[in-house]
Amino acid sequence: MIADVLADAQTRMDRAVEAAKDDFATVRTGRANPQMFQKILVDYYGTPTPLAQLASLNNPEARTIIVTPYDKSALKAIEQAIRDTPNLGANPTNDGNLVRVTLPELTEERRREYVKLVKGKGEDARVHVRGIRRKAKDDLDSLKSDIGEDELTRAEKELDALTRSHVDLIDDALKRKEAELLEV
Predict the structure, then answer these.
(1) List of residues 6+ apart from 148 with CB closer than 8 A
(2) So what's the pLDDT on residue 122?
(3) Helix H or strand E segment including 155
C-alpha cells in the first residue's frame, strides 16, 4: 500500500515536471521555436482549436516561423490568433498561402520580464509538486492504523526525497531557461 502511494506520487510529480518544462518552452527567447506556438488557440469555425492541429510550423531561420495552414480558409483566424497572443510581440504577415512570423529582437528589459515570467511559472510548478506531496502524505497518514510507525516514517522520508528531487529538476530546467533568456 505504501509502494502504491509513493508510485502514484512519483508519476504525478514526473508529469508536473514535464508540464513545467513544456510551459517554459512556450516563453520565447531570442530565437524562434515552434513550441512557442503550441498553446495558441485559433477560433476555427467558432471552436478554440490548437494551432498545431490547423497548420504545420517550420523554422527556416533563427527568428522566423512559417505557419502553413492545412485549410486556407483559416489563414485570417491564424494570423489574428498569433497577433493577439500576449508575450510574443510578433507581427505575422499573410501572403495568401502561409503566415510568416518574424520575431523582433529582444531588448534587455524584455528579457528581464521574461525571466520574471519564467520564475513565476517555476514557482507554480514547485507549488504543484508540493501539493502532490501533501496529498500523498495525507494518504500515508490514512494508512497509519494498518502499518507501523516505523514504516510510516520511512515512507515519509522517501516521499520527502522524491519531492526534493523533483523540485531540483524544476530548478535545473528554470536555470537553463533563464540562461537561455539572458543570452544575447
Answers:
(1) none
(2) 93
(3) helix 149-182
Q: Has residue 173 got a pLDDT over 80?
A: yes
Q: Cell 495552414 identifies what position?
A: 69
For the stretch 100-137, what's the b/e string if a residue is b when 16 or more beta carbons lie within 10 angstroms of its beta carbon? ebebeebeeeebeebbeebeebbeebbebbeebbeebb
Asked whether 154 and 52 are in contact (CB, 8 A), the reply is: no
pLDDT score, position 143: 85
Task: Determine the Cα–Cα distance for residues 16 and 129; give it in Å rounded to an integer.
Answer: 7
Residue 61: predicted pLDDT: 84
User: What is the model's pTM?
Assistant: 0.70
pLDDT at 123 over 90: yes
Q: Which string of b and e fits 65-88 if b means at least 16 CB within 10 Å?
A: bbbebeeeebbebbbebbeebeeb
How far apart, in whole angstroms, are the C-alpha atoms of residue 167 and residue 184?
28
Element (H, E) at 87: none
